[in-house]
Specification:
4-stranded antiparallel β-sheet; Thrombin, subunit H; mainly beta; Lipocalin; single chain; globular
Length: 381
């Protein structure tokens, strides 16, 4: 193996709009009969894998990102537990209780780990001890990005802030125009060369990491519709990066790829999904709102195949791992599909609660985390 629902509801920055949003969503979907999930067919394993360990922590009801560095996997739970696991054995390297509910995490560069609490504090940790806390002006649903001895935070008000990784001193802040609605979902933030690449509304934006100045913008999607919900446009994690090319999904609108060295848009295609995408140097993979799994050519976005075997099963964002596309569902199964045609290669079981984060690969171990706080490590046989 190699590295590399409609669960999100639109949330409002201002409380009065939050009430309107909930009412509108209830009116739109409350009278519709929920589609029945596709029945799972028996599977003959064509890719062998076994559960090698499992661990536990508290429940996870926020947009968790599992951060992998070498053989370490950093994970957090609602109650403020942050744990760094040895991915080979599942044993704790360290575990700390922040005693504060978490809204976003985990980001790590292999040394410093960072999360954000529901009290809007970014918290940095190292070797199982707290380094610093800094108060933010807005909620955060995207895991902090830790790189270059700095911690970068993308907040729900479309602000980006940079902090010194060891002291927490604020280095700079960049504020874009606010919008009535945002997603309670992880966004996009990464480094390409010496550029901090961030998803702001429907655009990928390149920032100078030393001062926050904007270097370029590339539109993936634009607002449309006649009300705030229909005009909602955001880029959602996870993303796929190969070299200078970054490919992302715009919530319920489309997917696209950008050359992040030049800041130029390569292509966009319509796509109706709410979870991020992943891929390799030739293909991209993603799940649509109805659970259809799709593969696109990375070069131009043309569709290669689609599979309806997992429709309405509340799918996670995918992971490309060798010949497999790995996807979790809301009943705790982890499905391994063929990257070549979408056929089923294997199905792995957890504790029966939803897979809450996109699966990750740490060394030779596939890691899945469930809503009930189960952490599962699978290894090839």
């Amino acid at each position: 193996m190699n590295k590399q629902s409609f669960r999100s509801l639109a949330q409002a920055i201002r409380p009065p709009i939050a009430i309107i949003t909930i009412a509108l969503l209830a009116g739109c979907f409350g009278g519709l009969k929920k589609p029945q999930p596709a029945e799972l067919q028996p599977v003959t394993p064509l890719v062998s894998a076994r559960q090698s360990w499992n661990s536990r922590m508290g429940a996870v009801n926020f947009p968790l990102d599992v951060s992998v560095s070498g053989q370490g996997a950093a994970i957090a739970s609602d109650d403020g537990t942050v744990v760094l696991l040895d991915a080979q054995t599942g044993r704790d390297i360290w575990r700390v209780a922040l005693k504060a509910p978490i809204s976003a995490g985990v980001g790590s560069d292999g040394k410093v780990l960072a999360v954000v609490t529901k009290a809007n504090e970014v918290v940095a940790l190292q070797d199982g001890r707290e380094l610093w806390r800094q108060k933010l002006n807005a909620q955060v649903f995207t895991a902090p990005f830790v790189a270059g001895e700095r911690v970068f935070v993308l907040a729900a008000d479309r602000s980006v802030n940079a902090f010194d990784g060891q002291t927490g001193r604020k280095l700079w802040g960049q504020q874009r125009s606010n919008e009535p609605l945002i997603l309670r979902q992880s966004g996009v933030m990464l480094a390409v060369g010496n550029t901090l690449v961030v998803g702001l509304s429907g655009r990928l934006v390149g920032l100078d990491p030393s001062n926050g100045n904007i270097q370029w913008e590339a539109p993936i999607a634009t607002s449309r519709g006649i009300n705030d919900i229909e005009r909602l446009v955001d880029l959602v994690g996870r993303f796929s990066r190969v070299g200078d090319t970054v490919c992302v999904r715009a919530f319920q609108t489309g997917i696209g790829c950008v050359n992040a060295a030049r800041g130029s848009l390569l292509w966009t295609k319509p796509a109706n999904g709410v979870q991020g995408i992943h891929g390799d140097n030739s293909l991209l993979f993603g799940t649509e709102v109805d659970g259809t799994v799709i593969a696109w050519k990375r070069a131009d976005g043309e569709r290669v195949w689609s599979s309806e075997k997992l429709r309405y099963r509340g799918l996670s964002a995918p992971l490309v791992a060798g010949r497999s596309v790995v996807i979790g569902d809301d009943t705790g199964f982890v499905h391994l599909l063929s990257r070549e045609d979408g056929s089923l290669l294997n199905r792995l079981t957890t504790d029966g609660s939803a897979i809450v984060a996109a699966p990750v690969l740490a060394g030779n171990t596939l890691i899945a985390v469930t809503r009930n706080g189960g952490i599962y490590g699978f290894q090839p046989e």
